[in-house]
Amino acid sequence: MKSGARNAILLSGYFGCGNLGDDLLLSAAVAGLRPLVPGGQFLVRDSGYATEFSDSGADVALTGVERILTERGVSKVSRVTRYFARMTGLLRRCRWLVFAGGTVFHERGDARSLIIQWMICRLARLLGVRIAALGVGISQLNSARGRWMVRDIVRKSELFLVRDEAGQRQVAGTPARVSGDLVFDWRELAALRRPFAVGTTTGPRTIALAVCPAAFQGAAEQRAVAAFSEAARIWHSHGHRLALLVFQSEGAGPGDQSMFAQITKHLGQDKPIDTRLLIPSPESLADAYRDIDVLCGMRFHGFVVAALFGVPFVGVAHDNKISEICRQFDMCCLDAGTFDGTALAAAAEASFDRGPDPALVERSATEAHENFRAFADVLA
Q1: Which of 62, 203, 255, 295 could form a disulfide with 208 if both were Cys (CB 3.0 to 4.6 A apart)?
Q2: Same domain (yes/no): 287, 375
Q3: Phi/psi class of residue 48: alpha, beta or left (left: φ > 0; alpha: ψ in -120 to 50)?
Q4: Could you report the per-residue pLDDT of 268-288, keeping only the tens digit for each?
Q5: What is the mean pLDDT of the chain?
Q6: Would you tell me how many other CB atoms lie within 10 Å of the CB of residue 120?
Q7: In terms of residue numbers, what domain contains 61?
């Protein structure tokens, strides 16, 4: 890119944090936006762990800018100052700041993440950079400050599309509208879709489990481990196979393996367990899901991929995105704060022959494509 040219797009999300879902979104966003901005460049706001994108093409540049905020041995003031200095340099090269999916607007833990998103948007507008949000998620906003900041971001955006009605309710009365999750429109993944065959499998089944350790703190984590372990014990006693799907690897934060290790310890060494570390490759995902009869747990994009591959799922909801996708596909959903192993085990076994409705999958793909169609209209 020529010095001083402003033909880049800054892709913003939780990219490069070791989370499969966010990195799937990055792949889907680049694939969908490339045809709309020929000759453009994509600068990725990432945390430095998106190594699988290092060969994604000369038009994709990983910035690693998020690492500045987590540097050890450096004062908070210094980190924030350096971070926004670097962000200013990136935005000066861009025409657009695009929030490319994911639950980027939330108040989990504290409001720091939301405040940073808001400040980046303020900086972008001061520098003349246009803002769009494509298929983003918005968690339940419980503070007046949080609701105001997100609504202010919507007002500063030329296009603001949320992935589901749960997110839309958080910004009701604004120009924001519902589209769909970007991964449903990732053509390379969708090309591997397969129909769900009702009643073709008999005998033992493969039940996959996906967890989210960050959703539990203190005693709640031990209660969840006990519940997941009890469900797994029941599945094993019924002759079923168990596959543990790792969506969050060790990287910017603790990975899923820590909770899986606790569950495995509860079950004992004699129980056969297959652990699968997922990577953002369509072929690899198709292979990992090849024999799964039902997916249980807490990973939103695990359910998106399950729907595309015709696999039933059961949600354990710690966030409105889980309950929403279960509602959309008429799948069973339990509350992460109150579920027990017996109920989860029963829900999984009752879902073996409840494959996702192909018409709903197709509709989700159409809604997801609306993100790129609408962005093309804004560009025009």
Answers
A1: 295
A2: no
A3: left
A4: 767 778 999 999 999 999 999
A5: 91
A6: 23
A7: 8-190+363-379
